[in-house]
Amino acid sequence: MLLTEVEALLADNTIDARIAGNKNVPFYHNKKTPASNALTDLIRTVLRMNATVQKSGTRLMRGTGITNARWQTLSELFALSKRVTVSELARHMGLTRQAVQRLADDMADDGLVEFAENPGDARAMHLLLTEAGRATYHDALEREWQWTNAIAEDFDVEQIQNAVALLEAITQKIQTDD
């Protein structure tokens, strides 16, 4: 953004003057509340963290025979510890049903998951971990715990738990508003 454009926005009160010179901070609209500005910062940080976690997950899973996407899917299926359909899993993961269906089909072809009848809906099969899927999950978990332990050692458990609770509450609010 050119300096004259910034000056014009400042004159128009479109952005907050206190941050106009910092290229690393987004320009906030003057009608946003402090909480709204903080939420914008949080969302931007979560998006950057997501990209970083994706890259780290890809590196962690190298040599295991599974991709980061498969690791996430195995992890979610294991954590849910109940029968779920592809649609339910997709909603839980925040992904499209089609993306999870493609992944589930590929993982079923490789013997990591299997489809089982759903007594409640014959068209929506349940997605279950196979023994090979559980073994793959546990092998990958051996890598993951070392990585998360190293990161977590710099934080208090209460800080992490509070962050989880806040992110879950914000996610719930966004999903409710959609």
Low-confidence stretches: 1-7, 12-21
- CATH fold category name of the largest domain: Arc Repressor Mutant, subunit A
User: Can you tell me the overall shape?
Assistant: globular
Radius of gyration: 21 Å
Helicity, in percent?
55-70%
Number of strands: 3
Give the topology string: H per helix, E per strand.
Answer: HHHEHHEEHH
Question: How large is the share of residues in beta strands?
Answer: 5-15%
Task: Give a quick account of the main beta sheet: strands, pairing sense, barrel closure.
Answer: 3 strands, antiparallel
Number of domains: 2
Number of helices: 7
- CATH H-level name of the largest domain... which superfamily? Winged helix-like DNA-binding domain superfamily/Winged helix DNA-binding domain
Separation, N- and C-terminal Cα atoms: 32 Å
CATH class of the largest domain: Mainly Alpha
Write the CATH architecture name of the largest domain.
Orthogonal Bundle
Q: Strand order within the widest sheet? A: 1-3-2
- Structural class of the helix and strand makeup? mainly alpha
Question: How would you briefly describe this protein structure?
Answer:
The chain is mostly helical.
Walkthrough of the structure:
It contains seven helices and three strands, in the order αααβααββαα. It is mainly alpha-helical and 178 residues long. It folds into two domains: 1-31, no CATH class; 33-177, Arc Repressor Mutant, subunit A (Orthogonal Bundle), CATH 1.10.10.10. The protein has a three-stranded antiparallel β-sheet.
List keywords for this structure.
178 residues; mainly alpha; Arc Repressor Mutant, subunit A; 3-stranded antiparallel β-sheet; 3 strands; 64% helix; disordered N terminus
